[in-house]
Amino acid sequence: MKTSVLAVFARHPVAANLLMVMMMISGLWGLSQLNTQFFPSFDIDFVSVRVTWPGASAEDLETLVTDPLERELKGIDNVKELASLSVDGQSLITLEFRENTDMGPALDEVKERVDLVTNLPDGADNPKISRIINHELVASLLVSGPDDPRGLRALVNQFERELLEQGISHIRIFGLPEEEIAIQISPGTLRELSLTLEDVSRKISAASRDMPVGIIGRGESALQLRFQDQRRHEYAFADLPVIVAQDGRLLTLGDIATITRRPKNAQTEVSFRGKPAVEMRLSRTRGADSLESAQILRRWVEETRPGLPPGIGLHIYDERWEYIQDRIQLLLKNGLSGLVLVIL
User: Fold this and answer.
1) Is 250 helix (H, G, I), strand (E, B) or coil?
2) Is residue 245 in a domain?
């Protein structure tokens, strides 16, 4: 006569209880191994190619930058869709690959194809190629401070390094103005020296550049040689020789121009209670844990806040990890309620 499992457990209640305890322990262990996150992890099979050309119109970018790159990129395998956008000063090309495409070789092929385009305008920056990666927001951190947001730059950069070192996967910063070096020469000075703005511009471009000059070696051992004399500070431009005056003196750019570092126009501004602020959005990558990232952030804020300079504040908001914690608590509550009903 065949004996059912229920009959066996009915005759041996201790075995049934042991099995239930083992299942509970296995469930608790499995729960501890789960990666806590708000949405399931998924890949985004996109690659972007971005080119910046300061001062250029959207039409020039479309003709001289976007179109040549598009013609070269259209031949890449497994591309589902290719889209481009050209605006004043910037060109963006986005490639969407078919599902299950190996994105490592695909990204390498995009880089190789972009390198084949050698006729981009001299004023255009080198193309920036990157894979678009999905980052799930954990929380946002607002750093508020003095009346000038540039005073927050050093602090925000320091905070970013500390949080990344402690285990935060990804940080995006908003409200920290990008800067440019402005060189202003009065028309009277130009007339006195018989110069034009084009003359000065050519001298600056010739003395401040970062460009490839060739390749040494072959195959995998090949190295690209670059001429790097890009001036990045006001004092570096001030020492640039421009013209020899009538009295024989060598005039530098600092002698005839006002050189200042200033924020670029049309940038995102963030404020908190009427004062400038910088927003830091902290996210997790595919393998990171949202609750662990939240604990790192809270611990860092508790340790950092007492040592902040006067007038600097740290404010956490948009804490997405709280939604995860609430759902875990609800799941555990419902599970315990069901367990009690089973036992009773």
Assistant:
1) strand
2) yes
Q: Is the pLDDT of residue 266 over 60?
A: yes
What DSSP character marks residue 310?
T
Separation of alpha carbons 164 and 161, rounded Å: 5
Distance CA 240, CA 229 (A): 12
Claim to verify: residue 166 and residue 275 sit in the same structural domain? yes
Which structural domain, as residue segments, surrounds residue 186? 180-263
Any domain includes 36:
no
The single residue listed with the structure tokens 């009538």 is: 246
Nearest by Cα to 140 from 327, 306, 321: 321
**273 and 259 part of one domain:** no
Confidence of residue 227 (pLDDT cuts 50, 70, 90): very low
Q: What angle do CA 296, 305, 283 make, to 5 degrees?
A: 35
Round to whole Å and give the CA distance between 211 and 240. Answer: 19
Query: Sorting pLDDT into bands at 50, 70 and 90, what band is 39?
Result: low
Q: Mark out the alpha helices in 1-63 (DSSP H runs).
A: 5-11, 13-33, 58-61
Please give the distance of CA 168 from its chain centroid, rounded to a whole number.
13
128 and 51 assigned to the same domain: yes
The strand pair at 170-174 and 90-97 is best described as unpaired
Instruction: Name the pTM for this structure.
Output: 0.60
Give residue 224's pLDDT.
46
Contacts 24+ apart (CB under 8 A), 95-99: 95/46, 95/47, 95/48, 95/49, 96/45, 96/46, 97/45, 97/46, 97/47, 98/45, 99/45
45-70 mean pLDDT? 88
Residues 119 and 224 in one domain: no
- The total of structural domains in the chain comes to 3
Shared domain check, 184 and 256: yes
Evaluate whether residue 28 is within a structural domain.
Answer: no
Strand order in the sheet with 90-97: 79-87, 90-97, 46-52, 128-132
